[in-house]
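Sanity check record (used in CI):
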Amino acid sequence: MSPCPTSRHDAANHGYITDKNSYRNRLRRFEGQVRGIDRMIDKERYCINILTQISAITKAVDSVALGLLDDGLRQCVLDAAAAGQQVSEVTMAEASDAVARLVRS
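Expected output for DNA-binding transcriptional regulator, FrmR family:
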């Protein structure tokens, strides 16, 4: 999600910033898991085992995406509520678009 329409677009206004290290650590684990799948394919491991690993990564990525969405919505909705109704409508439209992107993937 882009910065909140009510924010000054600085890092202090991104909802996830307090958990940035946690998100980055989780992303690094994904990288390791993807490298592991690459090795499994290279060694021609059983396809079901590879698919199991891919499923685990997919769920982990979804979890991070939902966490970022939740954190961002909390920050943006609070900012919008403080700024007034017009900004709230813009924020809700942006939030709805973000949810739709996640659902389509």
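Confidence is low (pLDDT under 50) at residues 6-11. If this sentence no longer matches the regenerated tokens, the check is flagged for review.
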